[in-house]
Amino acid sequence: MTFRQFVINNVVRNKRIYGAYFLSSMFTVMIFFTFAMFAFHPALSLGKVNDYALFGMSVAGGIIYIFSFFFVLYSMGSFLQTRKKEFGLLSLHGMTTHQIRLMVFLENMLIGTLATAIGILTGLVFSKLILMIAEKVLVIEETLYFYIPFWAIVLTFVSFLFLFLVISFAITFVLRTKKLIELIKADQQPKKEPKASIWLAILALVLLSIGYSTALIARGLEVLVVMIPVIVIVMIGTYFLFTQLSVYLIHFIKKRKLIFWKKTNMILYSDLSFRMKDNARTFFMVAMISTVSFSAIGTLFGLQSYLINGARDINPYSFTYIESKHQTAEDLEHDLKMIDQMLEERGISASKVSAEFGYYEIENNQSVLITNQSTYNQFAQVLGAEKVELEANQVIGVRQSEAIIGDYSDEQINTTLKQLEMGENLDLVDVIDHYVITEMEIHFIVSDQDYENLPQPLDVYSHNVWSAEKADQKSLVEVGEELTETLNYTYAFQAFDYMFYMINKAYGPILFIGLFIGIVFFVSAGSFLYFRLFTDLDQDRVKFASIAKIGLSEKELNKVISRQTCILFFAPIIVALVHGAVALTALSHFFNYDLTIVASSVLGSFFVIQVIYYLIVRYLYLKQIKRAILI
């Protein structure tokens, strides 16, 4: 057998450990190749997608590449830790340090080359599907046809081959060889009982409490001010959570005989404190990486929801035209006729409502819109919204639009009402959400009788809306685009479908890029957990085989391993989910916009994926342990 054949056989023999590393590397290569394929696509390079999107994809590719470097470096370090005994046996049979380093170098290059080649091939196989998805997400009118991305293949292959080459050299250079007896007995060395400081454990709770409470209390622009300090505090608290608090809690449980001596708890908790201490840095890293992934994707979907609902909140009608202060009556009449004519020419049937709204003086030379219930109900009927009924001296306040970033409450409505000349005589009977009238600021609805008795308004502006009936979105977008370009921009014209289209077109690349990067981070975090779990597999085989001989049943074995792997798998993920939930709640406070549904959907999806991943790994782990017991 040649040395190269020995290396290949060694990789095949260790496929259980190398499997997750290979698949994760392959997935990372595929994602990088996908971005490269977009960057070199003829349809995109000819200017059919804006330069910012292409720049974003280039930056995303760079982020993935840098992250891949540290991911591969960490993975190789984990593998070398598990192979000390193997290196000792090879040294015992005459292999020199130089040969061991060469073996590690060739193994890593073999896996890296295969992962790169298969990652590119997988990207090519799924390229058409990815391009079709990209057309929808990026809102590209032209078809992203399939092509053979020669330069993308070259860039990906050369980049990752260089990455694996550098890391392989670095790993072999720093590879240390201990005394032969230490290497052979590496997995038999007794471990000291892990210790934890109660003060550092308390500090972990204090830091996390301060970080969470600060993030949750902050409102509006305060969120930006406290963001960096909160991130630093929570990171330090998370580190002590895994290195100190978790170990301290396990020690606390072990001292409680009613818990520790119950059934198989002794087996579970005796080993768990060592596992938590050994894996503390890995858990910290997984928790932080997962938090970034959860928060980034949650933020992207939350921001998309905020922008779209904000656009709908600003303009719930198909078309809206509000008179400008500097506009003449002739210009207004001309533009309204043009809109009606264009809708008629395109065969778009639309319900139209026009009204003049008065703006009344309040403090600081500002004004507020007041309308009567009849006019409000005309607009409400077009939208199918609830109508209002008011008696004399009654008023309804309409909240400020959620599209405006800031911290505001219903108390501002009372304050504004009191600033009006006749405000003291009006009874505020209800406060409703901004929806019907095309006014973003606080405004009021009064009875028809009270409206007639209002003083002369400071300004009067014409509001005109059209609500399209049974029109296809493509026609509405085309008409909206043409009218937006034709009408004078000093006048407030808005076309909702066109606005919706432009938001998706501008935001699509950001969502597309962020989603891919977030998935790469999450997959890598899962791989780290897999590495750490299977690092101790050989020791666990011996341990559970010995325990089985003194009466541990198969049912009890399943229970112990399931609980142990569950704690190890979900401890960092649950921490990350809590971090992510707090981060997204802070984001909702910044925008003053409810992100509960978005946050629940994103975090829930990741949790379900983690459960599926756990069940698969648990099955594989149990299979390996049971095989050792049967032997």
TrEMBL record:
Superkingdom in the source lineage: Bacteria
Subcellular location field: Cell membrane
InterPro entries, A to Z: ABC-4_Integral_Memb_Prot, ABC3_permease_C, ABC_permease_BceB-typ
Biological process according to GO: transmembrane transport
Membrane topology according to the record: Multi-pass membrane protein
Transmembrane residue ranges: 20-40, 52-74, 109-134, 146-175, 196-218, 224-253, 283-303, 506-531, 567-591, 597-617
Keyword Manganese: no
One annotated Gene Ontology cellular component of this protein: plasma membrane
Alphabetical keyword list: Cell membrane, Membrane, Transmembrane, Transmembrane helix, Transport
Domain named ABC3 transporter permease C-terminal: residues: 59-178
UniProt similarity note: Belongs to the ABC-4 integral membrane protein family.
PANTHER family: ABC TRANSPORTER PERMEASE-RELATED-RELATED (PTHR46795), ABC TRANSPORTER, PERMEASE PROTEIN (PTHR46795:SF2)
Name of protein: ABC transporter permease protein
Organism of derivation: Amphibacillus xylanus (strain ATCC 51415 / DSM 6626 / JCM 7361 / LMG 17667 / NBRC 15112 / Ep01)
